Amino acid sequence: MNLKITCIPGDGIGPEIVAEAKKVLDAVAEKYGHDMQYTDILMGGASIDVHGVPLTEEAVETAKSADAVLMGSIGGDTTTSLWYKLPPNLRPEAGLLGIRKALNLFANLRPAVLYEELAGACPLKEEISVAGFDMMIMRELTGGLYFGERKTVEENGVRKAIDTLTYDENEIRRIAIKGFDIARKRRKKVTSVDKANVLDSSRLWRSVVEEVAMDYPDVTLEHMLVDNCAMQLVKDPAQFDVILTENMFGDILSDEASMVTGSIGMLASASLNDTKFGLYEPSHGSAPDIAGKDIANPIATILSASMMLRYSFDLDREADAIDAAVKQVLQDGFRTGDIMSEGCKQVGCKRMGDLIVERIK
Ligand code: NAD
């Protein structure tokens, strides 16, 4: 396959971790006979320094012309960096919001996986963590409470704030289809999370998800109320495969799920539109405190590259090869500083990339 990938190295540790992900993709391309062409674009602080804005039209056009986008992370130290003296629409994060909007990325995918080898980092009781877990949170990204009308008024001397939560059936249907498609590539179970005992938007959510489920008879659907889901994530996370939910519930639940893995440097993510196109990036930020020291953990970005192969290109065998190589490196006892534990061998960012490449070849 000929694949055109736009890369956004970004700021902080971004360029270091993207370089390792490219190394891993090149190893996969060589082994399985693909041709990967990369074009780098500037975004965030790196773009501000050169162009005075966090994202240019040209950069957006380059991203749109690719088959997928692989990103490191953007942003600097929010207290000391001069980027944060700029008006909000010119700060690094505006670039990220801008590209998500320009690419119409409405579905956010965040896997939360507990590797046996890293079970010690999991804050849950051992009897729970011992089972491990491997779930995918599919969050709607462009609707709901965060995008509804809002206002603050004063009535009879009392301040009152109003936020509105709106979803139409098309917005729900397109994310539900994504959720079921992803479940088909996994263990074929969708847990749709809502608050249908209270909210109209949740009752519509539930009924549209049920309609979509009819086209996926091989996928099991269950509904769960969001408050129960928050509890179940710490009580029995192994029960989940794909969690499908709206914007705000997904925001909160995906952070909770990440926290129970205990390892921020391991968490990949993807944002998809209604074609196969996606933007793939680690869940963590640009870690300016450790930038340029060759100590960042590149695994979240490498696993994001694996998601790109699986979800944008349907190259499941190649994605499996990356996931297996990561697992093997952990089994062999190699760790970056953030996931280091007694008896393991500490390595830097580049070495970790090399070790994963060796296990792919
Ligand atoms: P952060 O995720 O960058 O860092 C939090 C802590 O985790 C730091 O101690 C950091 O050293 C560590 N860490 C993060 N990733 C790591 C890795 N791969 N390996 C080892 N250690 C790692 O969060 P923050 O400090 O709150 O934010 C720093 C900057 O990143 C800010 O400018 C923020 O706006 C930006 N940010 C960007 C994104 C994005 O690009 N999508 C997401 C979150 C934050």
Which features does this protein show?
single chain, 361 residues, 10-stranded mixed beta sheet, 12 helices, globular, binds nicotinamide-adenine-dinucleotide
Could you characterize what this model shows?
With 361 residues, the chain is of the alpha/beta class. The protein is built from twelve helices and 14 strands. The strands form three sheets. The chain has a ten-stranded mixed sheet with strand order 2-1-3-12-11-4-5-10-8-9, with helices on both faces. Strand 8, helix 7 and strand 9 form a beta-alpha-beta unit. Helix 1 packs parallel to helix 12. The longest helix is centred in the N-terminal third of the chain and has 19 residues. The chain binds nicotinamide-adenine-dinucleotide.
Rg result: 21 Å
Oligomer: single chain
Helix content: 40-55%
What average pLDDT do the residues reach? 96
Structural class: alpha/beta
Low-pLDDT windows of residues: none
Distance between the termini: 19 Å
**Backbone shape:** globular
Bound molecules: nicotinamide-adenine-dinucleotide
- The helix count comes to 12
Main β-sheet, in a few words? 10 strands, mixed
Give the beta-strand count.
Answer: 14
The string of secondary-structure elements, in order, is EHEHHEHEHEEEHEHEHEHEEHHEEH
Binned strand content:
15-25%
Strand order of the largest sheet: 2-1-3-12-11-4-5-10-8-9
